[in-house]
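Escalated from tier 1: 6-O-phosphono-beta-D-glucopyranose holo job.
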Amino acid sequence: MVKGVIFDLDGVITDTAGYHFLAWSHLAKEIGIEIDEEFNEKLKGVSRMESLEAILKYGNKENEFTWEEKEALATKKNEHYKELIQNISKKDILPGIEALLKELKANNIKIALGSASKNAPVILKQLGIEEYFDYVVDANQIKNSKPAPDIFIDALKGLNLKPEEAVGVEDAEAGIEAIHGAGMVAIGVGVNGDVNVNSTEELTYDVILRASKVC
Ligand code: BG6
Ligand code: MG
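Tier 2 regenerated the structure:
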């Protein structure tokens, strides 16, 4: 029987993925690199610095910047991103998610957030759903980001659960790999996991129970 669910944030709880793309493509353009939505798929779930490194490599500019310059570029992207998300609120929760969180709570299933984003706590607060979460991974404390399993291992520890007692929900390939690396069953939202849904509307309590049977 499933005892916990670990959710990714960007693209699962709210559609901030589009804002990450806007902010990255704007910054990339400034340094002469064009990125498109197809390339952006590779950035989903990937940490801020690793995303920047991937963009520089894509534009053959990986050796053009010092570490300090790269840090400044990543900060610039984040400042733009924070501007873009400053007005997000309850209306930006993806369809079905709050009802699912409520149902999980009513069934005594623990809930954690396993996000690679350092902005995650602020976003949860803006969405008004922080009280549903028993544990939120602090991305500042995680050494290896997705596809490494560290975020999900930390979330399991935070919930005091074994991998076989929880399922992970992700919209990115890197995230599915991370869930599997932590030894858990993965539900893919628009991406290939062990149990798949096309959108959060289809992500019901029954799907969680179905996934837990795969455990
Ligand atoms: C992940 C996103 O959740 O967080 C990535 O999918 C993002 O696109 C990463 O780069 C880090 O986010 P932040 O907010 O710390 O820059
Ligand atoms: Mg995501």
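The chain has a mean pLDDT of 95.
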